[in-house]
């Protein structure tokens, strides 16, 4: 197949990719210089909508309504916008090999893409119960939510299992949001998580008690201090029951699992320095390879607030780190030992647009 070459390539088509593209346009990227390569079939969109308004029974959000950068109050970047700016959207394309020394990416279809500057914005993949060999975890109607295709499948199941029973496995952001969304759809909802209260990394016990009480008042059953250890299915292969470690068994027509994610860094193993599970960057989000930047979920960067290296999985970080990785540095900016502020990034990253 023919080889394609670009000055800049953004690998990944999520939130970070869209915000980086907008910043490239602001900085004056020329037509044909920039490409976004994504395995998804649609232009970058605000991923948080998938666990919120996308699941509403009425007035549900649908594309093009939540393409980036509408989530931060900016202009909605429709597919036509990229065309107008001369930015090539290479969709439904999975990259299976990255050769960083050769500045080359190879797709599953055998296409080759060359770049001068690469921005890794691959994000995370969900942790699946099948990864741990949980019995029956491959049954039908057990869902994970990361991409729009996942959300579409969940929506269809909600319609098919109207007034049925749903079990949410996990008590973090995704678990709480999905619990609320499924209850709005008139499902009988139970939430299961091993921690003593929901969102323990963020909430105190008192704050968690408020939310748990609110959910309980809405009819959501909360089961704490145990985990799902198995699933049974019916003759059609659809999930029927959730078996808990404490011996309880919950009926289920739908199960949604939200137990965390892993950064998608496998393509770059051994080619770039890593730290605490992510790709190590400096305060400009530049990696140990001078032509490669990493933003969003995959980046482990110096965080000024805590004076340490951290990896942050949050949409606001995805937006801001992506913008940071594209900005032309201010005149006279020192590029020594800088650190990055959690809320507003103090410096800009030298990806020259000349």
Automatic annotation (TrEMBL):
Q: What cellular component GO annotations does this protein have?
A: cytoplasm
User: The FAD/NAD(P)-binding domain covers which part of the protein?
Assistant: 6-322
Q: Which organism is it from?
A: Gossypium raimondii
Q: What is its EC number?
A: 1.6.5.4
Q: Which InterPro entries match?
A: FAD-oxidoreductase/Apoptosis, FAD/NAD-bd_sf, FAD/NAD-binding_dom
Q: Which cofactor does it need?
A: FAD
Provide the reaction this enzyme catalyses: 2 monodehydro-L-ascorbate radical + NADH + H(+) = 2 L-ascorbate + NAD(+)
An example of a GO molecular function for this protein is:
monodehydroascorbate reductase (NADH) activity
Annotated spans, Disordered: 320-340
Signal peptide positions (record): none
Write down the top EC class of this protein: oxidoreductase
Going by the UniProt record, its keywords in alphabetical order are:
FAD, Flavoprotein, NAD, NADP, Oxidoreductase, Redox-active center
Superkingdom of this protein's organism: Eukaryota
UniProt lists the family membership as follows: Belongs to the FAD-dependent oxidoreductase family.
What's the protein called, per UniProt?
Answer: monodehydroascorbate reductase (NADH)
């Amino acid at each position: 197949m023919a080889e394609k070459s670009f000055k800049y390539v953004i690998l990944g088509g999520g939130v970070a990719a869209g915000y980086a593209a907008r910043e490239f346009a602001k900085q004056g990227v020329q037509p044909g210089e920039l490409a976004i390569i994504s395995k998804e079939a649609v232009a970058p969109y605000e991923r948080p909508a998938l666990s919120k308004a996308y699941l509403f029974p009425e007035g549900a959000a649908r594309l093009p309504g939540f393409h980036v950068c509408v989530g931060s109050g900016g202009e909605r970047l429709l597919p036509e916008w990229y065309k107008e700016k001369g930015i090539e959207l290479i969709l439904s394309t999975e990259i299976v090999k990255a050769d960083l020394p050769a500045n080359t990416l190879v797709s599953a279809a055998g296409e080759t893409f060359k770049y001068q500057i690469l921005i890794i914005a691959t994000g995370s993949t969900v942790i699946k119960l099948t990864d741990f060999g949980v019995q029956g975890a491959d049954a039908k109607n057990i869902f994970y939510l990361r991409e729009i295709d996942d959300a579409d499948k969940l929506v269809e199941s909600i319609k098919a299992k109207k007034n049925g029973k749903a079990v949410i496995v996990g008590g973090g952001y995704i678990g709480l949001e999905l619990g609320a969304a499924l209850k709005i759809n008139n499902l009988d909802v139970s939430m299961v998580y091993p921690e003593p209260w929901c969102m323990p990394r963020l909430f105190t016990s008192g704050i968690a008690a408020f939310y748990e009480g609110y959910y309980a008042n809405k009819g959501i059953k909360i089961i704490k201090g145990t985990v799902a250890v198995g699933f049974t299915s019916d003759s059609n292969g659809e999930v029927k029951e959730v078996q808990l470690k404490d011996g309880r068994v919950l009926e289920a027509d739908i199960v949604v699992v939200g137990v965390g994610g892993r950064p998608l860094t496998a393509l770059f193993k051994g080619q770039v320095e890593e730290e605490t599970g992510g790709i190590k960057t400096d305060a400009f989000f530049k990696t140990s390879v001078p032509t490669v930047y990493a933003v969003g979920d995959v980046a482990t960067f110096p965080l000024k607030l805590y004076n340490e290296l951290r990896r942050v999985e949050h949409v606001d970080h995805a937006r801001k780190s992506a913008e940071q990785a594209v900005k032309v540095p201010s005149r006279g900016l020192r590029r020594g030992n800088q650190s990055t502020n959690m809320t507003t990034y103090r410096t800009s990253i030298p990806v020259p647009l000349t």
